[in-house]
């Protein structure tokens, strides 16, 4: 027994950590937090290629704590968003992170949208979310400058600072967070774990690997030797800031098109009091293509080589043409905003930082609608975690942590 104990210590010391997480966005950091909460003493290392956390999807969204009203009942998005919204508010309160539960309006501006609005009422109730129906007079009372035929009020929606949430998760996890660690190679051995090499030549060995690489998650999966059976097709969301924030009191959304996974141009009063307008959804020419001038030929070539990309283009070309028009024409973008907010003018729209959505696309052109988590030997891959992943990050992190810890027991 004494010899066996010494042998276990020797094998354990060959690893730098028990769980090695690639990606320091909110999902990767929530996973690290969940691992150390569920199994104290587990050694966790997080590798993030940027010089700080939350530099991409996490830090470039509108800061909304989503209620879960949009998502198919029983889906991971529905379950995790509803649960995650309540947990995110509690987490922010516990750690003194700026947040507010404001509620939001989803507004129908045309008769054709009314059936979809009523369907959202039913979906919200199926997901256990309090939803209140409003007429034109009640819309005007809640948002004097907003016009619509009907609306629903969703009381559990809020806003917060997700960058601050990510930083607090990093601190509270107790993990070894390594910034500036760009992963370039992975040597995974099913019976041993994974050795990861970063761009500066450092090698980090972990017993279990967790892939939370966001915009690069499919590439990271292939580095391990697993076929993710999807590709990330990046879509840029462009935002403006409202020069007259007094025009909007809270959060105002259009009725979404169920054929596309984007919510449309909406109005969001953030935790700092500014009002963001957007986003649209246009193809990005790089994984981190935050403007038309950012082009990475290798990444663009990979997107164009994926059959699903062309099938999306053929299936949604009318929708895409409208999004492109709004991207290159401020007048067209203003026109779209005026459907909800008639008083807005082009001069009211001040350019703001854009974001890029990591959208998983299957070979047949299907846009993956739900969160997607897959496993390989000694590996857990998070392959689709766009909005509402920030809202749902705490329950997503627990699920990924559960799978990672289960893989540790195979030793």
Give a structural overview.
The chain contains 12 helices and 22 strands. β16 and β17 (275-278) form a beta hairpin. The protein has helices at 2-13, 26-38, 76-94, 114-126, 136-142, 162-173, 217-224, 297-305, 307-315, 317-328, 330-338, 393-408; strands spanning 17-22, 44-48, 64-65, 99-101, 104-108, 131-134, 150-154, 158-160, 176-179, 183-189, 193-198, 203-211, 231-237, 240-242, 251-254, 266-269, 275-278, 282-283, 349-351, 355-361, 372-376, 379-384. 34% of the residues lie in helices and 25% in strands. With 411 residues, the chain is α+β, with helices and mostly antiparallel strands. Strands 1, 2, 9, 10, 11, 12, 21 and 22 form an 8-stranded mixed beta sheet that branches.
Quick check: average pLDDT? Answer: 93
Contiguous runs where pLDDT drops below 50 for at least 5 residues: 1-12
Cα shape: globular
Which structural class do the helices and strands define?
Answer: alpha+beta
What share of residues is helical? 25-40%
End-to-end Cα distance: 18 Å
Beta-strand residue fraction: 25-35%
Using DSSP, what is the number of strands? 22
Multimeric state of these chains? single chain
How many helices does DSSP assign? 12
Please state the CA-atom Rg, rounded to the nearest Å: 22 Å
């Amino acid at each position: 027994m004494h010899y066996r104990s010494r042998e276990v210590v020797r094998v354990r010391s060959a690893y730098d950590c028990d769980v090695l997480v690639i990606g320091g966005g909110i999902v990767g950091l929530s996973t690290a937090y969940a691992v150390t909460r569920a199994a104290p003493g587990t050694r966790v290392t997080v590798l993030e290629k940027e010089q700080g956390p939350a530099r991409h999807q996490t830090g470039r969204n509108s800061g909304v704590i989503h209620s879960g009203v949009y998502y198919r009942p029983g889906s991971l998005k529905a379950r995790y968003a509803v649960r995650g919204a309540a947990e995110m508010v509690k987490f922010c309160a516990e750690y003194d992170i700026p947040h507010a539960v404001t509620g939001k309006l989803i507004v129908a501006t045309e008769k054709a949208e009314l059936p979809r609005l009523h369907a959202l009422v039913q979906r919200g109730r199926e997901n256990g979310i309090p939803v209140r129906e409003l007429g034109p007079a009640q819309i005007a009372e809640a948002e004097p400058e907003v016009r619509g035929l009907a609306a629903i009020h969703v009381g559990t929606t809020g806003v917060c600072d997700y960058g601050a949430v990510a930083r607090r998760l990093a601190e509270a996890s107790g993990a070894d967070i390594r910034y500036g660690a760009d992963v370039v190679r992975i040597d995974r051995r099913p019976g041993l774990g994974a050795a990861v090499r970063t761009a500066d030549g450092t090698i980090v060995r972990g017993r279990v690997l967790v892939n939370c690489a966001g915009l690069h998650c499919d590439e990271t999966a292939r580095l391990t030797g697993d076929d993710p059976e999807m590709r990330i097709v990046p879509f840029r969301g462009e935002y403006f800031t409202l020069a007259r924030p007094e025009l909007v009191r809270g959060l105002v959304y259009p009725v979404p098109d169920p054929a596309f996974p984007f919510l449309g141009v909406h109005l969001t009063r953030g935790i700092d009091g500014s009002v963001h307008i957007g986003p649209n959804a246009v193809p990005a020419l790089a994984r981190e293509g935050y403007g038309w001038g950012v082009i990475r030929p290798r990444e663009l070539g990979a997107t164009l080589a994926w059959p699903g990309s062309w099938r999306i283009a053929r299936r949604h070309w009318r929708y895409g043409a409208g999004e492109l028009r709004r991207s290159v024409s401020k007048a067209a973008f203003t026109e779209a905003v005026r459907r909800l907010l008639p008083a807005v003018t082009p001069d009211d729209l001040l350019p703001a930082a854009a974001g890029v959505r990591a959208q998983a696309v299957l070979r047949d052109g299907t846009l993956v609608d739900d969160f997607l988590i897959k496993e390989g030997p000694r590996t857990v891959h998070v392959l689709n975690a766009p909005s509402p992943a920030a809202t749902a990050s705490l329950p997503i992190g627990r699920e990924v942590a559960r799978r990672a810890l289960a893989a540790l027991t195979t030793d």
